[in-house]
Amino acid sequence: MGLYEQIKESFDKQGLMHSLNAHLASVQDGEVKVACEFSAGVTQQDGYFHGGAITSILDSACGYAAWTKIPEGKEVLTVEFKVNFIKAAKANKIVAVGKVIHAGKTLMFCEGEVFDETETTVLAKMSTTMIVIAKSV
User: Closest Cα partner for 98 from 106, 85, 108?
Assistant: First the structure.
């Protein structure tokens, strides 16, 4: 099974991503994109994408970007992250792009951005640390 298929299989097991109607858009070495279509289920009270939805999608994009850099039999978990919301997200779709900045043996540092559907307007930025652990079961 190729890297994309492994990541897609894992991604498809995430109940939260299903709830947010998010999908895996692309997988490259060190970079993963996750997209989410606008719906009432991802909004806050003023009709914008909810910060929790944005953060969750971006965390997944960064986590799977990190996964592209780990050895077989390992997985990654988020240790910490920081998010800056730059612009209110009112778009038909958002795209989260996670990128590996440093791939260590134990800790990995990733950065991510969320864009509107044109992938030109930055809506949020994230920096995150991931830990590499032995795969559970």
Answer: 108
